[in-house]
Specification:
Distance between the termini: 46 Å
Largest sheet: 8 strands, antiparallel
CATH superfamily of one domain: Transferase(Phosphotransferase) domain 1
CATH architecture of one domain: Orthogonal Bundle
Low-confidence stretches: 1-61, 215-254
Structural class: alpha+beta
Number of strands: 26
CATH class of one domain: Mainly Alpha
CATH topology of one domain: Transferase(Phosphotransferase), domain 1
Strand content: 15-25%
Strand order of the largest sheet: 1-4-5-2-13-12-9-10
Helix content: 10-25%
């Protein structure tokens, strides 16, 4: 996975002493091996809790933030985003739902005092989307926002918390489950009785972006910098940056995620020490919540090995601009890929980077089923192609469901196919754990009828129904649903307001669609083995509908029958 492996060390006379934190155990559920929330390059150490207070007099030191000698930290830790100073003993700080190290403690001088105090220096990497702060019944979280310099604060306890800017006039009263935006500056986090943490929010670093890339090596030298067109992702002027350095970014424009805004032909260099680069090629598709494009990457990275890859970036303005939802959507998709591992009919994960909410997958030289449609919106392949597609995706779904996951968006646009490779399932952006059904998301025409009864019935059987709809289209019994039948909103079906006009209209439209599918299903020939199997996927009773494992076995046993 792309990561920065170089660990900064304190330089003599810098005024700070740094030491690694111990592992943090704030995971509320088991973390799968090789998942993006696990260090896949080493066996995890036994999880321990990092508790502030290793220096005895720390909590009694009431020095003001502006008296802390922080410049050595800022000079040495180029990519630091948060400086954290606990104000009471017993504070627990850890990475959000990971068992990886989160930041380094530094002992800093205090102006006019002989003693030093501890400050946690947090530098985002390819895994961390934020941190958790715990103290007795107090629990809150801080999330990074790849598109902005601010942090997002969430109160996860049952009582209100307050955030107050110490070098400004902003302050927020944050109710339980409420959020607040903490801009660049120094902030105090407090309960109604005491301040438990002070933090400084720092500006994001810049990333070096060039228009050209040396064919001999992955990163230009200082001498080569002047001959290249260089663009720094900030609103300020251009300044050269050495390969092993990062320049702190001035306040950037709204939604400025460097990877999301990378232009075709540009190359971005990411990291310190073990740097990786990406060169943007052509765009695959743009969606409301993400952008997907082909890229080249450097050969020295063991996972991004110089071949073409596919880059998916969650857009900063996704989910109504809610950075927390963006971060959790990114984490969910990464975790799903990691749990699934390798399967020939599932797109392979190559890497990810929390600093951009990006996911890197293998590039497959194939088009989606949506692309090769005939003018009449029917499938342009043969009956043999249809059977192969059904076999491969049924096998993929059997694997997904065995890992206790649900895809939730089976449709032609999420299936790549080339006869030599077979069919490959892509886009796990709205996948969910089997026991956590999704009330929204997906494409309405592939939604199973049980969703109208209770959206909590959405699960593995719903994926099978969706594949059955794809099967009807592959076999020529229906045209492409997305462009031939009226759309309705899935959220309107699952709405608690069952007497609203939107809900009633959505249910009416969906019932009409299910009736249309019922009629198409009745035309499937039971004497044709493939069509008989497809018919099993469209059983309107989810409890008797064929499951993915059985479907895969039945399809594997088929001989190719005549049309």
């Amino acid at each position: 996975m792309p990561l920065d492996s170089q660990t900064p060390q304190a330089s003599p006379g810098s005024g700070i002493t740094q030491h690694h934190t111990r592992r943090v155990d704030l995971v509320l559920r088991p973390v799968p091996k090789n998942s993006p929330v696990d260090d896949s390059h080493a066996s995890p150490a036994p999880a321990q809790t990092l508790e502030y207070g290793s220096f005895e007099d720390q909590a009694n030191n009431a020095s003001d933030w502006d008296k802390l000698c922080l410049q050595p930290i800022l000079s040495h830790n180029f990519s630091a985003r948060i400086l954290m100073r606990p104000k009471i003993k017993g504070i627990h700080i850890g990475s959000y739902k990971t068992n990886m190290d989160f930041g380094e403690w530094a002992r800093v001088k205090v102006e006019g005092q002989p003693d030093r105090v501890e400050v946690l220096v947090v530098e985002p990497n390819h895994v961390h989307i934020g941190c958790v702060i715990l103290h007795n019944d107090t629990r809150c979280q801080l999330f990074f926002d790849p598109g902005h310099d601010h942090l997002c604060f969430r109160n996860d306890c049952s009582t209100p918390l307050s955030t107050r800017q110490l070098d400004g006039e902003n302050s927020y009263h944050v109710i339980p489950n409420g959020t607040a935006t903490l801009g660049v500056g120094v902030w105090a986090l407090a309960t109604d009785s005491e301040t438990f943490m002070e933090i400084e929010v720092l500006k994001r670093k810049t990333w070096r972006i060039t228009q050209t890339l040396s064919s001999k090596r992955g990163a230009p030298t200082d001498e080569e910098e002047s001959s290249k067109k260089l663009r720094i992702t900030s609103s300020q002027g251009v300044a050269p940056v050495r390969d092993n350095e990062l320049e702190r970014s001035p306040q950037s424009g709204v939604g400025n995620n460097a990877l999301a805004e990378l232009q075709r032909g540009e190359v971005i260099f990411v990291g310190v020490g073990k740097m990786y680069w990406l060169k943007r090629l052509d765009t695959i598709y743009e969606q409301p919540n993400s952008t997907v494009w082909r890229a080249e990457s450097n050969k020295h990275n063991s996972r991004l090995n110089g071949e073409k890859i596919v880059v998916k970036v969650i857009k900063p303005d996704s989910f109504g601009g809610d950075a927390i939802k963006c971060a959790e959507a990114w984490k969910n998709e990464c975790e799903t890929h990691a749990v699934l591992g390798n399967h020939p009919a599932i797109v392979r994960l190559l890497g990810f980077d929390a600093r951009f909410h990006s996911i890197y997958t293998e590039h497959i030289d194939a088009k989606s089923l949506w692309d090769p449609c005939q003018p009449g919106l029917s499938f342009s392949g043969s009956r043999a192609d249809a059977q192969k597609i059904m076999q491969d995706i049924a096998s993929a779904l059997s694997h997904v469901h065995s890992k206790q996951k649900v895809h939730n968006d089976i449709k032609p646009g999420n299936i790549l196919y080339r006869p030599e490779r077979g069919a490959v399932l892509i886009d796990f952006g709205i996948s969910t754990p089997r026991r956590q059904p999704a009330s929204t998301g997906g494409s309405p025409w592939y939604l199973s009828p049980e969703f109208m009864v209770d959206w909590k019935f959405r699960g593995p059987a719903s994926d099978v129904w969706a594949l059955g709809i794809v099967g009807l289209w592959l076999l020529g019994y229906i045209p492409m649903p997305e462009v031939t039948y009226p759309e309705w909103q899935i959220a309107d079906i699952s709405s608690e307001d069952t007497v609203s006009v939107a809900h009633l209209e959505a249910v009416y439209t969906m019932k009409g669609w299910i009736e249309y599918i019922r009629e198409a299903r009745s035309k499937l020939r039971v004497g044709n083995e493939l069509e008989a199997v497809v018919k099993l996927t469209l059983d309107e009773d989810r409890t008797t509908r064929i499951d993915a494992s059985s479907l895969s076995q039945r399809l594997d046993q088929l001989r190719l029958t005549a049309p």
